[in-house]
Amino acid sequence: MKIYSWNVNGLRAVLKKGLFLPFLAEHKPDILCLQETKSEREQVEIDLPDYHEYWSSATTKGYSGTAIFSRTEPLSVSYGFPKAISKRYQLVDDAGRDSETEGRVITAEFDKFYVVTVYTPNAKDDLSRLPLRSESWDPAFLDHCKALEKKKPVVFCGDLNVAHTELDLANPKPNRGKKGFTNEERAGFQAFVDAGFVDTLRIFREGNGHYTWWSHFANSRARNVGWRIDYVLVSSALQKSVKAADIHADVMGSDHCPVSITLGK
How many other CB atoms are found less than 10 A from the CB of residue 25? Predict the structure, then answer.
């Protein structure tokens, strides 16, 4: 089974460029998790007869949003966090913006595991959303995944908006303390690892140079001056089933590229 994740930075834009359907035809994901769809289903002119579709859109038009496309119909699908977790954490930032209205999480249950797509809030250039990230969002998301894990293993994937270690971005020193590479955000990612979730790419690849997002400035993508902020993590119970983990930097259409894992028996 091939599970893909891609921050498309506007699905309508990728479709307009003529790059989304060729990607599906070539890679044939069994489950495709999208982030930053920036649209509602009725705004997207696309026909995917081979897939069951699940969308979560932000209340603000043209912002955020996630989707899951799956060849196999899930046993169940839920959107956002369960009520118990929402009550436990303050998921509204200092400006009064409620992250739960931004369509950031979809959870799909399959026979042997859960798949969760997540678009983690960006801390912003001025770090105005860092308290939301570090004090509320990351702990809430971890609690959600741990609660699911009590029932069956979990695959969670998406744009986590953080480079975990210095190996996960081309220029760590000048970016230390900036959005995506603060101590708080990195600790939030480390908490997933400490809880037993496995960063699948690191099963197969060490070192730097493995990036999933590039700035539009200074020809960054062609020079591979990027960040790894898109991930697929799995419960430790699934680690031996992960036969491959890849970054598909050749897939164009967004400032992010897809990432994927292949699960076997």
Answer: 8
Number of domains in the chain: 1
Kindly state the tokens that stand for 66.
């996630």
Distances 216 to 132, 175, 212, 223, 224 between C-alpha atoms, Å: 27, 17, 13, 11, 11
Per-residue model confidence (pLDDT) at position 217 = 92
- Would you please indicate which residues are annotated as catalytic (active-site) residues? 119, 159
**Model confidence pLDDT, tens digit, residues 168-196:** 999 999 999 999 999 999 999 999 999 99
Closest CA to 81 of 57, 113, 110, 104: 104
Sign of the alpha-carbon dihedral angle for 236, 242, 244, 249: negative
Which domain does 222 fall in, by range?
2-263
CATH of the domain at 247: 3.60.10.10
Average pLDDT, the chain: 96
188 vs 204: CA distance, rounded Å: 23
| Strand pairing class (198-199; 242-247) | unpaired
Q: Are strands 114-119 and 154-159 parallel, antiparallel or unpaired?
A: parallel
Residue that is written with structure tokens 């400035």 in the block: 217
Place of tokens 């797509």: 117
- Burial tier of 39 (Cβ tally within 10 Å: 0-12, 13-18, 19+): buried
Helix ranges (H only) for the chain are 11-16, 20-27, 83-88, 130-131, 138-149, 172-175, 183-194, 201-204, 220-223
Band of residue 27 on the pLDDT scale cut at 50, 70, 90: very high
What is d(CA 249, CA 257) in angstroms, rounded to the nearest whole number?
5
